[in-house]
């Protein structure tokens, strides 16, 4: 324990665990994890933000708890222990959402429950928390949750703006532009379909890879 | 040969070391546009010929011209004009769409070629004409432009440009506009021009296409001959099966399109049509499927796309047959999509490499077996 206390809480190394997943090690666009929910909850910005925060909380605390338990859990049964921890956290998050933001919780429907199956949560436990101390594991969880959320918010921004003409429910594109009011504009219906989310994620990957040449595959 | 001289004088400026060398691709594109290139491939087993991609694409454009001209006439005829007046009305009506499609598409193509240091590819000469021809004549121009941009960037350039695309770019454009702006691409009024000029009667003109009639009532208010000749509402270039068949003859005589694909698409559509007729699902004759909607247009100009269709001969039969069969299947079974040709071609574009793979594998296995037998 004394060894750990020598290192400051926000040392350069620890900060890297936190900020790495934002860009160079992003779970969605570099590791290609958690795509399924990125397609499902990004039609509008508000559910996407709530989903991002929920996943961040679950990943961070699941990482923390599993890191604390890492020396006590036999490797053979670790998956079931992880599932219990994650499921407990997801139920907590679900209850909190139902209590405070009921309408968003309704909108997200099964996808809150499905955080249990989000590959990022279990992926980070397996890849990081089981081999690291609680504090770095906690930071790694927050970093990955936010890195995932960042992509979700970007995708949802474009989908809501061009698919519904609004952001966070506020009208951005004026009503008078629409054909019904005598204008010429029309919302892009394809934006409301999941395939368009995949195409937007693809475009983000395209831009990201051309700016980070070291990530480009040979 | 004044022009040749001008081009030669300009060349050093755009070549390596010249002032405008960053525009080399653009210059090359215009030079080969004006003159047949005098270079041939020097290495490898190639047929050495001056028939480069530009000439090939121009033949396809020429094959499209009968359908295009008829489309012009029909656009005018649908709003109550006759003769030459109808033709000119349609021509004026469609030209902005053609311009938008070419300007947007070529600008993006030139931009990408320049950024990557490639030659500008000519594939877009055909796509740029196909895009307005597969859309309803009253599609707003900004939708045409957006669809074209989407098709060129997402349908083509992300895969590496001409020759590397998985999906037919013109159909990607149509699919994008269809799913994005469904009200502007289907319904009763979009098939008629809304420009009041030359005395066209555009007020209150509306009506479903032959396909929509068939899918809702099982009959159509036109005779099969009218449908074959093309005097029916529909997307700009797709209505006249006769004009499309003239184009098909050009493509087949010059050997540019594959007759295997073309014939098997028609056979597939007929077979599926007769199956539905035999099962009692549809009442009208199965061959009506081939003369209404975009079936013939898709079969002749889109399913035969050498890039996105199957490469092996057996593969062409299989993919063609499936394309036709699927198109009729979607038309009859799915009430949301009276026209199934677009979706079935795109779907078979995605499956064509798989079909090719198994055709090649089967060939290898067959030859191996024969070899073992001979060795015994």
Description of the structure:
The complex is a heterodimer of chains A (218) and B (376). Chain A has 218 residues and is mainly alpha-helical. Chain A contains ten helices and two strands; from the N terminus they run αααααααααββα. A two-stranded antiparallel sheet of chain A has the order 1-2. In chain A, a hairpin with a 2-residue loop joins β1 and β2 (170-171). Chain B is mainly alpha-helical. Chain B folds into two domains: 22-37 and 53-201, no CATH class; 208-376, no CATH class. In chain B, α4 runs parallel beside α6, α7 runs antiparallel to α16 and α15 (313-333) packs antiparallel against α16 (341-375). The N and C termini of chain B lie far apart (68 Å).
Chain-wise SSE layout:
The complex is a heterodimer of chains A (218) and B (376).
Chain A: H1 2-6, H2 12-19, H3 35-40, H4 45-69, H5 78-100, H6 102-108, H7 110-113, H8 119-127, H9 134-164, E1 166-167, E2 170-171, H10 194-211
Antiparallel strand pairs in A: 1-2
Helix pairs in contact in A: 2-9, 4-5, 4-6, 4-8, 4-9, 5-6, 8-9, 9-10
Chain B: H1 2-14, H2 24-34, H3 53-78, H4 83-116, H5 123-133, H6 141-155, H7 169-180, H8 182-185, H9 210-217, H10 224-229, H11 241-253, H12 259-279, H13 288-291, H14 295-302, H15 313-333, H16 341-375
Helix pairs in contact in B: 3-4, 3-5, 3-11, 4-5, 4-6, 5-7, 6-7, 7-16, 11-14, 12-14, 12-15, 15-16
Question: What is the number of domains of chain A?
Answer: 1
| Beta strand count of chain A | 2
From N to C, what is the helix and strand string of chain B?
HHHHHHHHHHHHHHHH
Output mean pLDDT of chain B.
83
Approximately what portion of the residues of chain A adopt beta-strand conformation? under 5%
Largest sheet report of chain A: 2 strands, antiparallel
């Amino acid at each position: 324990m004394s060894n750990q206390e020598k290192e400051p809480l926000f040392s350069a190394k620890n900060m890297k665990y936190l900020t790495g997943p934002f860009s160079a090690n992003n779970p969605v666009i570099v590791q290609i994890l958690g795509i399924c929910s990125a397609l499902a909850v990004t039609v509008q910005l508000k559910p996407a933000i709530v989903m991002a925060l929920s996943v961040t909380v679950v990943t961070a605390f699941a990482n923390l708890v599993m890191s604390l338990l890492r020396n006590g859990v036999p490797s053979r049964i670790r998956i079931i222990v992880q599932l219990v921890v994650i499921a407990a956290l997801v139920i907590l998050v679900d209850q909190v959402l139902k209590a405070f933001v009921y309408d968003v919780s309704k909108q997200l429907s099964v996808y809150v429950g499905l955080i249990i199956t989000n590959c990022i949560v279990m992926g980070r436990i397996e890849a990081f928390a089981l081999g690291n101390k609680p504090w770095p594991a906690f930071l790694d969880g927050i970093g990955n949750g936010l890195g995932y959320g960042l992509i979700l918010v970007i995708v949802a921004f474009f989908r809501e703006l061009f698919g519904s003409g609004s952001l966070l429910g506020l009208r951005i594109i004026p009503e008078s532009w629409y054909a019904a009011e005598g204008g010429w504009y029309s919302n892009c219906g394809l934006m409301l379909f999941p395939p368009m989310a995949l195409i937007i994620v693809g475009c983000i990957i395209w831009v990201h890879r051309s700016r980070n040449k070291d990530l480009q595959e040979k | 040969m004044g022009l040749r001289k001008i081009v030669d004088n300009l060349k050093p400026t755009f070549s390596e070391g010249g002032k405008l060398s960053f525009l080399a691709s653009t210059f090359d594109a215009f030079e080969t546009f004006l003159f047949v290139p005098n270079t041939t491939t020097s290495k490898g087993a190639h047929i050495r010929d001056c028939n480069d991609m530009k000439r090939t694409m121009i033949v396809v454009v020429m094959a499209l011209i009968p359908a295009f001209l008829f489309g012009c006439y029909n656009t005018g005829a649908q709003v109550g004009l006759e003769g030459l007046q109808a033709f000119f009305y349609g021509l004026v009506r469609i030209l902005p769409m053609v311009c938008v499609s070419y300007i947007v598409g070529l600008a993006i193509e030139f931009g990408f070629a320049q950024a990557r240091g490639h030659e500008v590819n000519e594939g877009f000469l055909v796509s740029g004409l196909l895009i307005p021809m597969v859309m309803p004549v009253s599609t707003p121009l900004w939708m045409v432009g957006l669809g074209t941009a989407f098709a060129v960037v997402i349908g083509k350039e992300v895969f590496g440009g001409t020759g590397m695309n998985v999906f037919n770019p013109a159909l990607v454009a149509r699919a994008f506009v269809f799913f994005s702006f469904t009200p502007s691409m289907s319904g009763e009024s979009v098939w008629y021009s809304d420009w009041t000029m030359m005395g066209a009667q555009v007020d209150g003109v509306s009506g479903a296409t032959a396909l929509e009639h068939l899918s809702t009532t099982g009959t159509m208010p036109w005779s099969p001959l009218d449908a074959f000749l093309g005097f029916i509402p529909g997307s700009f270039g797709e209505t006249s099966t006769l004009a499309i068949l003239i184009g098909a003859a050009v493509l087949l005589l010059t050997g540019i399109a594959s007759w295997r694909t073309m014939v098997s698409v028609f056979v597939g559509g007929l077979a599926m049509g007769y199956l539905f007729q035999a099962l009692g699902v549809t009442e009208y004759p199965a061959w009506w499927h081939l003369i209404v909607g975009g079936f013939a247009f898709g079969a002749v100009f889109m399913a035969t796309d050498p890039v996105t269709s199957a490469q092996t001969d057996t593969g062409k039969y299989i993919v063609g047959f499936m394309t036709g069969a699927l198109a009729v299947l979607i038309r009859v079974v799915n009430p949301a999509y009276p026209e199934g040709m677009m979706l079935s071609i795109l779907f078979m574009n995605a499956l064509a490499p798989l079909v090719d793979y198994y055709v090649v594998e089967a060939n290898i296995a067959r030859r191996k077996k024969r070899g073992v037998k001979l060795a015994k």
